[in-house]
Design goal:
Helix content: 10-25%
Shape: globular
CATH topology of the largest domain: Rossmann fold
Strand order of the largest sheet: 4-3-6-1-2-5
CATH superfamily of the largest domain: Nucleotide-binding domain of ferredoxin-NADP reductase (FNR) module
CATH class of the largest domain: Alpha Beta
Order of helices and strands: EEEEEHEEHHEHEHHEHE
Distance between the termini: 20 Å
Largest sheet: 6 strands, antiparallel
Length: about 250
């Protein structure tokens, strides 16, 4: 798969475990909001690469990414040290199942994220097309500690009658300590936001982050009559299994 050498533009640490960075965008690089791409660093002539969801919306001039820092991870232990002007290698073929084409249009789009699983949903929230396909969009971001609530100020500034942002913190005192998956499944999320009870006929769900949470939500939704998007068609909920590779 062809890689091109791109230049780091900016770096922003969020917590001791998470950081984001922007790269130059090749002129011919096209992607759909919510997709991921493979990024890598060359060390001693060898490319070390992992999948990363793109934080930028499809029409933005730079490519933004959110990463976890794993101290002994072969890639992130190096990536955490990049500075503006450094090189990162970008694969030219984005893909993924957390795009608007992977779920039917509907009433409310629920985006349930843990940790760096926030990344593809930032892309969708930034893309006006999301709000032409759905009456309302809800983003729940669950993290362990408050500094890990990346992009919080931006998300709060975007809140309006159609976009709802619900941050939750599970390991520190915080107004909302429950995990997003629990809030959604209990019905408390829709109730709290003044939205109709969640209904697979009208609403859509996207899930990204912790593999255990993804499996738990997938099982619960299927049991409640929801249809998971797969290669054979479009459903009313979708997950990004490739995202588990972001953690090394």
């Amino acid at each position: 798969m062809p890689y091109t050498e791109q230049t780091v533009q900016t770096v922003r640490p969020w917590s001791d475990k998470t950081f984001s960075f922007t790269l130059s965008r090749p002129q011919d690089f096209a992607f759909a909001s919510g997709e991921f791409v493979t990024l890598g660093l060359k060390r001693e002539g060898k490319l070390i690469a992992r999948a990363y969801s793109i934080v930028s919306a499809a029409n933005e001039p730079e490519l933004e990414f959110l990463s976890i820092h794993v101290p002994d991870g072969p890639l992130t232990s190096q990536l955490v040290h990049v500075q503006p002007g450094d090189s990162v290698w970008l694969n030219s073929k984005p893909t993924g199942s957390l795009t608007l084409d992977h779920v039917k249009s509907g009433r409310v789009l629920y985006m349930i994220a843990t940790g760096t699983g926030l990344a593809p949903f930032m892309s969708l929230v930034r893309d006006p097309a999301t709000f032409t396909r759905f009456d309302q969009a809800v983003l729940v971001h669950s993290v362990r500690t408050e500094p890990e609530l990346a992009y919080r100020a931006e998300l709060e500034s975007r809140m309006n009658g159609r976009f709802h942002y619900v941050p939750t913190v599970t390991r520190e005192p915080f107004p909302t300590p429950e995990r997003g998956s629990v809030l959604f499944q209990s019905g408390a999320l829709a109730e709290r936001l003044g939205l109709p009870a969640v209904d697979p006929e009208h609403d859509r769900v996207m899930i990204c982050g912790n593999p255990e949470m993804t499996r738990e939500m997938t099982d619960a939704l299927k049991a409640a009559g929801w249809t998971l998007t797969n290669h054979r068609g479009v459903g009313n909920f979708s997950t990004e299994l490739a995202f588990v590779t972001h953690h090394a």
